[in-house]
Amino acid sequence: MALLSLEGLHLNFGGVAALAGVSLDVDANDFFAIIGPNGAGKTSVFNCISGIYAPTRGRILFDGQDITHWKPHRRAMLRIGRTFQNIALFKGMTVLDNMKIGRHIHLRSGVVACALYYGKAAREERAHRATIEREIIDLLELQDIRHKIVGTLPYGLQKRVELARALALDPVLLLLDEPTAGMNAEETEDMVRFILYIKQVRRLTAVMIEHDMGVVMDISDRVAVLDFGQKIAEGAPSQVQRDPVVIKAYLGEEIEPA
């Protein structure tokens, strides 16, 4: 059984169809990429998976459970984490505080205990902070900036902090929405290195939206291609890269028969 299944997803905004019958199966420990031209519906798929949008028709199954109509916070409790194409950090808070927010679903103390910060709540917060520092800050090489205000950091570091916050959730499924968008060559190389390391060490399941085909080829196990809200191809990266329908969608050209 696939860890994540999308069954015939349709998403309409008035008379505009953002998704038209998209079906995908993502197996456990898969690194799955979704690619396609701008406006193809890639982020709409992510917003349906994470609960920001409710599909007009179709189902979303996670580990065999129908979560189509679950609220976003309930999906987070299933340990579905994500990053965003446009950085969605708390810019006035520190790197460490942003990461601690990513672990909020693991807190078990009551509201009063957390507000007063005593006893179990204080011990629990210290334990989560230790986990973050031990498992994520070192992993993503954020030691020197963990007490910096996020809004003062360069763009590439902010993208890395957003990845760190998603990892703080301890996700079973990680959704990466254009993790290298807007980065220069050096920042992209660093981000790919970190993602590859996460893939090898954490062994989690990931779905990635990415425009950089070099990154897709380096990281992905399988690739699905969307165009105008429909899936037009799926398979191994090398196979998809050679698909005439995919080439036509990207280049807008007819492919001459061999």
Structural commentary:
The protein has 258 residues and is an alpha/beta fold. It folds into 2 domains: 1-78 and 209-258, P-loop containing nucleotide triphosphate hydrolases (Rossmann fold); 80-170, P-loop containing nucleotide triphosphate hydrolases (Rossmann fold), CATH 3.40.50. The protein contains 10 helices and 10 strands. A 6-stranded mixed beta sheet has the order 6-7-8-3-9-10, sandwiched between helices. The protein has a 4-stranded antiparallel beta sheet with strand order 2-1-4-5, with helices on one face. A hairpin with a 2-residue loop joins strand 9 and strand 10 (230-235). The protein is globular and about 55 Å long. Residues 254-258 have low confidence and may be disordered.
Provide the fold topology.
Layout: E1 4-13, E2 16-26, E3 31-35, H1 42-50, E4 57-62, E5 65-66, H2 72-77, E6 80-82, H3 95-101, H4 111-116, H5 119-137, H6 155-168, E7 173-177, H7 185-202, E8 205-209, H8 213-219, E9 222-227, E10 230-235, H9 237-241, H10 244-251
Parallel strand pairs: 3-8, 3-9, 6-7, 7-8
Antiparallel strand pairs: 1-2, 1-4, 4-5, 9-10
Write a short abstract of this structure.
With 258 residues, this protein is of the alpha/beta class. Helix content is 38%, strand content 23%.
| Count of DSSP-assigned helices | 10
CATH-defined architecture of the largest domain: 3-Layer(aba) Sandwich
Rounded mean pLDDT score:
87
List low-confidence stretches: 254-258
Level-1 CATH class name of the largest domain: Alpha Beta
Kindly give the count of domains.
Answer: 2
CATH domain fold name of the largest domain: Rossmann fold
How many strands, which pairing sense, and closed or not: the largest β-sheet? 6 strands, mixed
Please identify the structural class as seen in this structure: alpha/beta
Overall geometry? globular
Beta-strand residue fraction:
15-25%
Helix content: 25-40%
- Radius of gyration (CA) equals 19 Å
Distance between the termini: 39 Å
Question: Order of strands in the sheet with the most strands?
Answer: 6-7-8-3-9-10
Number of strands: 10
Assigned CATH superfamily of the largest domain: P-loop containing nucleotide triphosphate hydrolases
Report the order of strands and helices.
Answer: EEEHEEHEHHHHEHEHEEHH
